[in-house]
Design a protein that fits this description.
431 residues, alpha/beta, 7-stranded mixed β-sheet, 18 helices, 7 strands
Length: 431
Amino acid sequence: MSETPPNTLQYRADGPEDAPVLVLGPSLGTTWHMWDRQVPELSRHWRVLRFDVPGHGGAPAHPGHSVGELAARVLATLDDAGVQRFGYAGCSLGGAIGAELALRNPHRVASLALIATSPRFGTADEWRQRGVIVRTNGLDPIARTSPERWFTPGFAAAQPAITDWAVQMVRTTDPGCYIAACEALAAFDIRAELGSIGVPTLVLVGSEDQVTGQGEARTLVAGIPDARLAVVPGASHLAPVEQPAAVTDLLVRHFSSAWQAAPDLGATGQHAITAPPVKPVLAPSPAAPATASTAVAQPEATAARPDAYATGIKVRREVLGDAHVDRALAAADEFSGDFQDLVTRFAWGEVWSRPGLDRRTRSCVTLTALVAGGHQEELAFHVRAALRNGLTPAEIKEVLLQAAVYCGVPAANTAFRVAQAVVREETTPQE
């Protein structure tokens, strides 16, 4: 077990201390216990290090807001443990972290297994709506429906103890960390980078997985140069839990036969992390004043300004959702295209992107302005955006009550009707 500073992760290690290290990453909503049935066999061959993502399994609630940030915490954890080179197997979110590690730190990953993983998990809109549902209703609706996403119906019916364990595991997760993980998956998309994963990779998928199925698995295999596919019969999303023996056998075979050796590492695959040498900095000598012949006017350094359209389209999608933005852009023609460009560049690329106010505050201001102007259609879009930006329905109600005083009761009456419909649609859990 470990103590956990904010930049690292809670973990435990099993197996011989001098063996090569194999890291196991969990799925969203699960803990390192999802790997319990694999550890006895894997730890005969490797030093097995399992971690919890923030807020899961009692881990400190320091949210990770991107898959890259979570991968960086994995590396910091391994650095603290003195581990340089390692194999990695991850399920779903854990698989995304593994792919990120292989892309950004290929010199450290010896071999990779991606279980129930996709280069892009559904759509960003789906993940952000899940965050809205959790923020509004807590994790109970997600917990109650987890078994049907994770297991085949026959397994869930035959294994009530495991089903109850799965529900409780989600219920005891920190909601803020769960929402942050949803946001991380919303932004995760490595489809264009798969060809840069250069480590031997096993792509493993349950034959009955309806979350990240065989189509996503085949996309990974087609894109990663050194990848092979394994389909586990009778398994859904949490294949390591549902078919532990089959998954364990596949992992042992893969990591035993496909482990790239690092040229400078010993046989154990781990060593102490040393700091890079400090480079000397040469300062100008004070004894040599500038003269007319030596003084050269240096141009002032200016930071390159990011393209307003690129920034704007990114923020616009994050706030309003891909579906809304796609519809708006698809409807643009020669007459209205310039207006869409103006909105993207100036409203989203210049104003919404300014650092002076956070997005929650900007949503409050925007809702009030739309009530005052009577812009009902735009109000519906921005109530949805406010939920995604972190406002709860109770907070939106307070904004509209405030607007009723200063913008007029008739305007607020219409606003309540519009907002009520959007809130119901966005926050009602899907059964």
